[in-house]
């Protein structure tokens, strides 16, 4: 539903650019061929969402992406009765639509969602592949092609927000990390239009910032942020200003840490 940031994409023609890191495309295809649900683990902004969009297009399946948040309930995914022009009508949620259409449903950051969401996922992620809809009394069998994909970031150390073994053991799991430096430089260059040489320098800096994760920083700088910095530079912003805005400020609010990070910039670019 729109309030839950659902995005529907479809059609094989517009496969978004994705540079593979290893055997992830083959593994996803094999999981899909065997009707297995897939769990993508990895830090934010490392390419998980882009990967799913790419694979959905490659497999010619519509894709429903739901950005999960702590208020997202099972009803948001399944659907609800709404009042329309004085009449009460049932409106399918994104998960129900995907189940009916044989689409891919991608639950981004699934651990953020409310507990009742995992209950819904269980009968869909075993060989029954059914979605019980209590409110309408329907028991939907997933159409051929339906695939459940979920992602989460194991880096967030929140004991309350982790997937229970009974849930995670229903998925084939794939680990994602930031791409190797040469691949990441190519990605940054292709996505932003910056030269590969200059993109490589930004990626070198990103590597140094990522090494500080766990000490000064909760999370390392994402590929997404490196692309932002590169894009700002392409539109004419001075390098140091672009780096500060896209690769330093989003990481921390602590003035001392920020100063330390800016010193690192001088080391790499000075
Ligand atoms: P996540 O879902 O892991 O938070 P995204 O998939 O949104 O991250 O990735 C952030 C951005 O990084 C993408 O929009 C894309 O521009 C870029 N990106 C990351 N990895 C890749 C890759 N392997 N191929 C192409 N683009 C990538």
UniProtKB/TrEMBL annotation:
Pfam families per record: AAA_5 (PF07728), CbbQ_C (PF08406)
Residue ranges constituting the ATPase dynein-related AAA domain according to the UniProt record? 37-171
Instruction: Report whether Nucleotide-binding shows up as a keyword of the record.
Output: yes
Task: Give the matching SUPFAM superfamilies.
Answer: P-loop containing nucleoside triphosphate hydrolases
Supply the alphabetized keyword list: ATP-binding, Nucleotide-binding
Keyword ATP-binding listed: yes
Q: Where is the CbbQ/NirQ/NorQ C-terminal domain?
A: 184-266
Which protein family is it in?
Belongs to the CbbQ/NirQ/NorQ/GpvN family.
Stated name of the protein: CbbQ/NirQ/NorQ/GpvN family protein
- Organism for this UniProt entry: Roseovarius ramblicola
């Amino acid at each position: 539903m729109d309030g839950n940031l659902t995005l529907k994409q479809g059609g094989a023609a517009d496969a978004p650019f994705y540079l593979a890191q290893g055997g992830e495309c083959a593994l996803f295809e094999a999981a899909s061929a065997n009707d297995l649900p897939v769990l993508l683990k990895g830090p934010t902004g490392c390419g998980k969402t882009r990967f799913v969009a790419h694979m959905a297009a490659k497999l010619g399946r519509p894709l429903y992406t739901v950005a999960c948040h702590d208020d997202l309930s099972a009803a948001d995914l399944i659907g609800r009765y709404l009042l329309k022009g004085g009449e009460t009508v049932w409106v399918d949620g994104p998960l129900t639509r995907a189940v009916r259409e044989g689409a891919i449903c991608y639950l981004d950051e699934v651990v953020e969602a409310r507990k009742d969401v995992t209950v819904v996922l269980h009968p869909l992620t075993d060989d029954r592949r059914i979605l019980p809809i209590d409110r309408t009394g329907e028991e939907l069998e997933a159409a051929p092609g339906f695939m459940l994909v979920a992602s989460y970031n194991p880096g967030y150390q929140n004991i309350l927000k982790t997937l229970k073994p009974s849930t995670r053991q229903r998925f084939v799991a794939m680990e994602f990390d930031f791409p190797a430096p040469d691949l990441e430089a190519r990605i940054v260059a292709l996505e932003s239009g910056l030269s590969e040489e200059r993109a490589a320098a930004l990626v070198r800096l990103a590597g140094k910032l990522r090494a500080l994760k766990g000490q000064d920083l909760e999370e390392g700088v994402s590929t997404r942020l490196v692309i932002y910095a590169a894009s700002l530079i392409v539109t004419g912003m001075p390098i140091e200003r672009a780096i500060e805005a896209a690769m330093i400020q989003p990481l921390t609010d602590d003035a001392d840490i920020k100063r330390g990070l800016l010193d690192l910039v001088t080391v790499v670019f000075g």
